[in-house]
Amino acid sequence: MFVSTRGKGRPAWSRDSAGTTHLELIAAVFVVSVGIFGAFQLFRFCLDRTAAINEINVAVRAVQNELETLRAAPFDQLVPGERGFISSTPELDRLAHVAARVVISAEPEHPDSLRRVSATVTWIGENARRIEKSMTTLIGERRP
Amino acid sequence: MKRTDGTRGELFLRRESRGIAEDLGATLIELLGYFFVLAIIVNLATGVFVQSSRLSALGVQTLESMRALQSIQGAFAQAVRASNGVAAEVGRFRSGPSTLVLRMAGGGADTGAREFIVFGTFGGERIQRWHVRMEDGAEHVEGITSYPLVVADVRFVYDSPYPETSRLITMQIQPKQAALKKRDSQPNTMSAAPRLREGIFP
Questions:
Q1: How far does A78 lie from chain B, in Å, by closest CA?
Q2: Is the ipTM of this complex over 0.90?
Q3: pTM here?
């Protein structure tokens, strides 16, 4: 038996469920937008990560090049103190606000024949974060 | 319309039934609207998919290139550190800007055999590492390793005018991928110093 007769010859349940409301539309658009923006965020994240890995590789290579250069240098050139890199790693220019320094110190047990050498590269990475890569090695005087 | 008696009630039911039937399904305009919205969503999704695929390919390519560079750097540094220094030439190989010949420590001291490691592209597009053994004036190739990085240019730089007296060897690699895209124009530089040099250090 029919009870409701609201509207023009159309039952209430049928009229109420036809089409979509504004709220439903906005919700659907919101969900789609969240998905699309999420995908774009993912792109950006992947690109940033790849760039960061590349930057770290370059920095580590520069540090290794510097240590190798110092290892090849005559021992009397390893004067204790702090200074810039003497090696050439041109790709280091790809890093933003890059600073490279070497700290040489004499080892207390063998001050005349052993040096502790630390090479450090610092730069500004993603999100203006300061990143530092450093390596330390011992270099001894080569004796015949 | 109010139902007052049986006859009018039947009429009402028929009309109501027709009204429900009219509400079912979709009009042409509604269908067109649905298709339009669907087309936009499919277009966006396809764009996102294509961009994802490109990004994934770019990421894989970049990472493989970095891994290959690390592999070359590792092999180069290991060979140079284990060597006695640079040899001017061995067999058909001569040290210079495009080729590096390393005189390796050890070898067959009792048999007079000497071992060498040679790096270069030898006219190809990939860096190769040749393990050469010289015995009784004859050249024996013990092994060849080719690294999975296509390069546009490879250059060896020595810290001395004569390669055989150099104490620091630098390899500069320009990957072909970067050279083609004209980005990362600076070559990848890797240096190494022989640890076992004989008689040249002061």
A1: 14
A2: no
A3: 0.74
